[in-house]
Amino acid sequence: TEYATILTETRGRVGWITLNRPEALNALNSQVCADVVAAATAFDRDPVIGAIVVTGSERAFAAGADIKEMESKSSLDMIMGDHFGGWAEFAGVRTPVIAAVSGYALGGGCELAMMCDIILAADTAKFGQPEINLAVIPGMGGTQRLIRAVGYYKAAELVLTGRLMGAEEAERAGLVSRVVPAADLLDEAGKVADTIASKSLPSVFAAKAALDAAMETTLAEGLRFEKQAFAGLFDTQDQKEGMAAFREKRAPSFENR
Ligand code: HXC
Question: Which range is the signal sequence, renumbered to this chain (predicted)?
Answer without folding.
Answer: none
